[in-house]
Amino acid sequence: MSFSRPLRRSVSLSQARTLRLVVLGQGAVGKTALTVRFITKRFIGDYDPTLEMIYRHTAVIDGEMVHFEILDTAGQEEDSLQIEEKIKWGDGFAVVYSVTDRCSFDEVMRLCFLINHIHSSPKRSGGSDQPPVVIVGNKKDLQFDRMVSCEDGENLSKALKHPFYEISTRDSYEETVVVFNTLYNELMRQGHFSPGSFKRRAVSKLMEKIPKMHANSTLNSGGRSLSFNSFRDYIPE
């Protein structure tokens, strides 16, 4: 997957594909750090673990404009209706655990089961494809605190039949990009994108309450950031 052609004001945002991704996992596993690293290339280690945010990000990928809407979930205990609404909202999912937290690893199987159960619909690509899920083992840089081996992650990946990446959000921007590239490529293969632009998306009342942050990072084929601007700069008048 390559990033190309700078984003121009003359390009119609309403014609772009919209990709909804949900980042799931227990609290303090690095979900927000992963999302912000992907969008801005910056690593920020301290966040309020109780906050949720939908990050809106537009990029030109393989010559085509794509809207990313990335829901960064809080990872706190919530009722079944709330988690179901968030999973229904998503097209693809990154399920994150920390290699320093065995409980967060054990939570991955439950979350993957919920995703597959909630999205079990014959309308999705003829009923043959489940939504793409990537399992992410984060914080591999904390080797002395490790409680989950890479082999554990690989075995879970094989059992659940989902791609697996062990990464360090702190040390590597490129590793975070691989996670989101994998979801993008699988959704392209399935031909399953949410239609319409940011402004035209229908959402539930629960999802409307989640704060949104607008940001653009236009990247070249080498992945280098050319600009980071307020999203409103690119909304056609």
TrEMBL record:
- Statement: the UniProt record of this protein carries the keyword Hydrolase: yes
The protein's matches in InterPro entries, at most eight in alphabetical order, are given as: P-loop_NTPase (IPR027417), Ras-related_GTPase (IPR051065), Small_GTP-bd (IPR005225), Small_GTPase (IPR001806)
Q: Which controlled-vocabulary keywords does the entry list?
A: GTP-binding, Hydrolase, Nucleotide-binding
Pfam families attached to this UniProt entry: Ras
Give its E.C. classification number.
3.6.5.2
Q: Which reaction does it catalyse?
A: GTP + H2O = GDP + phosphate + H(+)
| Claim: Nucleotide-binding is one of the keywords in the record | yes
The GO molecular function terms of this record are: G protein activity; GTP binding
Q: Which NCBIfam families match?
A: small_GTP
* Protein family (similarity comment): Belongs to the small GTPase superfamily. Ras family.
Q: What is this protein called?
A: small monomeric GTPase
| Species of origin | Platysternon megacephalum (big-headed turtle)
